[in-house]
Sequence to fold (271 residues):
Amino acid sequence: MISSASALRALHVDALSMRADRAQVQVGEVFHLAIHAHVREAVTALDELVVPDVGTMQLLGDERHVSTSPGGTDVVETLTLEPTQSGAFTFKGAYLDAIDARTEKPSRFSANPVRVVVAKPGGQFSESVPSLAFKVLVVVAALIAIPALIVLAIVVAASRGPARARKPIVTPPSPPPAAPAPPPTRRDVVAEALRDFRTARTEDSLLRLRAALFNVVGADEGATLRDALAGTSDPALRDALAAAEHAAFGPDAEREASSDELIRTTEMWLR
Fold:
């Protein structure tokens, strides 16, 4: 039900979306649910934004970040969640009520729902039926082929007659093992993740690069951007951290530009 029109303010709502950084998790594993809204007006807050009910999930953090530009205001609210039960969970879309500045009528703007599958601790996510059937066929084929191979080996051995004595083969001594390579530094891990992201700008490579940058400042998997920024005073690293957060949870329409900014800021920090 839309709130009373007298309590609503007029807004141009250009985008309202929701995204989880992981679609499959296990009970006890932390993940993030990010809600992004963009309005054309310059506002300091968007209190009208209502986040979805998280059900049995444990809410570990709720961080809202507001940024303004000549094009308007972007609001990103990040929920840090820990599942306590296994199963498939669908989060209803976040929403906000406002006077639609285009039509001057009270309206409800809703984000897309998000589905997350939670497995039991140490459990496996279910396989598709075709994949399981293929594995069964492979096992059956192997059980049929192995006896046939054994019989063929016996026939071949019998046809060759008694084996001739062979001269022992002298194997030269093995060279001493090479010294182990030093373990990669956190900077090395960031550089490798950056190369992967530059090669293929996929969701997985983006999240790996974000995690590598967060790890530089000692931020764990469940940390937010605010936690990461508190771990460093290096301006170049802070720029890269902010760019990674915007690329991961910002609007889809700006993904290309924000990815370019992430690559640029990360390269600047690695120099």
Summary: The chain is about 35% helix and 25% strand. The longest helix spans residues 129-159. The mean pLDDT is 85.
